Amino acid sequence: MTPEIEIVTGDCREIDASGPFGMILADPPYGDTSLDWDRRVKGWQAVAAETLQPTASLWVFGSLRYFMAEARAFEEAGLRYAQEIVWEKHNGSGFHADRFKRVHELAVQFYRTDAAWAGVWNEVQTTPDAVQRSVKRKKGRPAHMGHIDAAAYSSEDGGPRIMRSVIYARSCHGRAIHPTEKPVDLLEILIRTSCPPGGIVCDMFAGSGAAGEAARNAGRGYVGFEIDHTMANKARERLSAKLPLVSA
Ligand SMILES: C[S@@+](CC[C@H](N)C(=O)[O-])C[C@H]1O[C@@H](n2cnc3c(N)ncnc32)[C@H](O)[C@@H]1O
Predict the structure, then answer these.
(1) Is 104 left (phi over 0), alpha (psi -120 to 50) or beta?
(2) What is the pLDDT, as a whole number, of residue 47?
(3) What pTM does this model have?
(4) Structural domain contains residue 212
(5) Residue 134: DSSP 8-state
(6) Is residue 227 within 6 Å of ligand 1 at its C-beta?
(7) Are residues 187 and 202 in the same domain?
(8) Is residue 247 in a domain?
(9) Whose CA is nearest to atom 4 of ligand 1?
């Protein structure tokens, strides 16, 4: 059976915890600009933490400025940092002429403070671009790092390498439905990493519903929350053009 894909119009802070969700995604407004729609949303982290299963991850998009400003909110909600990836874009925003042209954003993985990392569902992603064939690759274990799990992994077809944490993906510039739309390919990597097959992805700030498309590509279900009615309808339109949606 095809997992369900659904866009709910409303505030994600009023989530009816109809989960359990396999993972939670959040791409909130970063609040880095003075644009009208770019206002930080307060209190969503506590809702995410309450909804998050002990085996599940929360992946959050943001700028370093955003994470520094909100660090306390994550901590007080009982969310622990696991790792981050850098999304490298093909173009970027030039808000300031006196700084580097910004061609990246972060996505940070959190899990519940009262959960153990070893119990968090995690499918390490690989790329088939290694040059040597049939080797058992070993990850170094520097003494100062203490215990690191999974220090060795087997090469299955002479190729796979652990995916790098800097991931290039073309931004949606020119074809985006939402001004800060995230690429489906990138979202699919996060979903395959953290949502078990057949699980449901909860997207707290759905925007264009890009993560719904990624979830469907990965064979996962999806519930996206979007507060803006017009955008929620656009997301539904986008998803129903490709996928059977459950009723709104
Ligand atoms: C950064 S955008 C998300 C873009 C989305 N990831 C995409 O790829 O299209 C943030 C979205 O969150 C929505 N939003 C803001 N506050 C919200 C809330 N409290 N609950 C649900 N959605 C909210 C905004 O309307 C906006 O569409």
Answers:
(1) beta
(2) 96
(3) 0.89
(4) yes
(5) S
(6) yes
(7) yes
(8) no
(9) 207
